[in-house]
Amino acid sequence: MKGVTAVLLAGGQGTRLHELTKAEAKPAVFFGGNRRIIDFTLANAVQAGIENLIVATQYRPETLHAHIPAQWGRHFPSDGLILREGMATTARGYLGTADAVWANAAQLDALGTEQVIVLSGDHVYQMDYAAMIDAHRASGADVTLAATTVPMAEARGFGVIEADATGRVTGFVEKPLHPPTLADAPGRSLVNMGIYVFDWRWLRAVLATDAADPLSSHDFGKDILPVAVHSTQMQVWRSGAAGAEPYWRDVGTLDAYRTAQLDFQSGQPPFALPGLGAPSAHDALQFGFSLGIAGLSLRAPRHRPDAAHRWTLLENSVILPGARLGTGVRLSNVIVAPGTNVPAGLVVGEDPEEDARWFRRTEGGTTLITTQMIVRRAMSRPSRLPLSGLAPKFAPLRA
After folding, report:
1. CATH class (in words) of the domain with range 280-398
2. DSSP letter at 27?
């Protein structure tokens, strides 16, 4: 990895995760117990032997600035892990993904950077960055981007790539209404994974031009890659065995976030979760017995386990750290936010209209429960009001 510097973009809010990112940046959201989404990218960087890593943060950076050095600092040289918060790096903050790299150009120069690998901190995947960097160097290209295939309908939310038989990129369009498909895989499109290797000399010149353009959004997908397609050699790189796509998930929606976590709770997880920290003990403290199979979890309370009506039933649901469940709870397709106390006997996931009245329910059928929603529901119960009062009306929370 001599001459390689990684820039990890970790400043996004992730608005489609709604209340989960009200107080946290998207990369800092919990995933797989006490881990954070960003830990997948950090684990990949450590495995590749990358020694120089600049982490660009912006929205609600406090958790990341505490978590990253504490959990990952020992894997880098003393001066190799650099946290650069947007408003501290430049008075206006980072204006876009490309601008986040340009704002750190002096730091990249000082590190003697020859190739820069740009990473995103909000995807769940396992990848060999070293192999991608080796392929980039061997190709002689100025730009290499990692790609995978998705169904055409899903490709509308990504940058879509066209490439020839040699892997040279011939076309790139960001979030098209009508994505091009692959000749050898009808119905599937080749999409950008948000992982790039650049020759720094080339990228530095392009970023300087982009920074001076008042009409630019300073975004890699919208501004830099389209230029690269027409002005230089850009190669596509696909990890994994031929004909097999690697596990890669954009967990930017509540539905995708919940189902990806369920993948790792199954009997055959896609790969091992990043190994850091101790597992949360709150589950063991709450329950005396737990049985799980195929997305279904049945848990007995620590006290009076013989009382059948007090058992807790969870189906395809995710309980985030610090949350506590009352006895007799039944949850289906639910995310319980960190620190939320779910009252005894609550049933969610069986009556969509009732769920949407109190909680945030998506069109895909995922329901998010937070402390504020529980309080809102409790305050509106008729038993909490004067005898002459009526329960107030609340509009449903829409995803």
Report:
1. mainly beta
2. G
